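Researcher: I'd like a candidate sequence for this fold, 225 residues long. If you have to choose between options at a position, lean toward the conservative one.
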């Protein structure tokens, strides 16, 4: 059973203090060892989760799901060349297609499991709001379930939530607070020590399992877009 090694987080800690190309090249072998650790971890998560989530594309592997550590600095004021985390994403659709999914971030003091749909584009957002308008009780049932709240007691993230009502909806709509959302994601923090535990694969998969009804709701909402 693959766990995240202490050396992987130690590499990220050192990278946060030495975020430059010269240091990275000098420690490339350490980076590659850490990357292999994350690839193997992601693969075990995918293999286990695929048994209960058949919508995961068959071609997705752990290595393919792990995001690049290199930052795109072309349009950013922050010119640091490297991200300070490893992360992997399990999409429910083919590469390049915006859809709900599952995400794990690995970073010293800031690791978490997440899922849902982050900042959907305008057509998808419109469809999700329409689904909430028509079938909001279905979404509330998911968010209010006891098992869901075990992991996500704060519910959906309110990142970039509208301060006013979205166009086409009244302020007294029973689900207006959900309709104001621009992202539909949840997250669950993980302590560094938990990543070293042999039970971490099961923990991630169990967390993903609770996200599945949310992702099914979102995928159904955008199916016609």
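Model: Candidate sequence:
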């Amino acid at each position: 059973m693959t766990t995240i090694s202490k050396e992987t987080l130690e590499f990220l800690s050192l990278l946060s203090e030495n975020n430059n190309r010269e240091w990275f090249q000098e420690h490339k072998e350490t980076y590659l060892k850490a990357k292999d650790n994350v690839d193997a971890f992601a693969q075990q998560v995918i293999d286990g989760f695929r048994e209960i989530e058949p919508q995961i594309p068959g071609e997705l592997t752990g290595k393919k799901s792990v995001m690049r550590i290199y930052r795109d600095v072309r349009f950013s004021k922050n010119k640091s060349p490297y991200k300070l985390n490893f992360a992997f994403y399990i999409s429910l659709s083919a590469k390049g297609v915006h859809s709900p999914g599952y995400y794990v971030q690995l970073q010293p003091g800031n690791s978490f499991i997440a899922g849902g749909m982050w900042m959907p584009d305008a057509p998808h957002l419109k469809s999700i709001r329409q689904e909430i308008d028509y079938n909001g009780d279905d979404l509330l049932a998911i968010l209010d379930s006891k098992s869901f709240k075990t992991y996500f007691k704060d519910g959906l993230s309110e990142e970039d939530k509208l301060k006013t009502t979205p166009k086409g909806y009244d302020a007294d709509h029973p689900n207006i607070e959900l309709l104001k959302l621009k992202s539909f994601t949840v997250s669950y923090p993980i302590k560094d020590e938990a990543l070293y535990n042999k039970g971490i694969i099961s923990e991630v998969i169990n967390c993903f399992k609770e996200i599945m009804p949310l992702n099914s709701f979102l995928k159904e909402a955008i199916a016609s877009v």
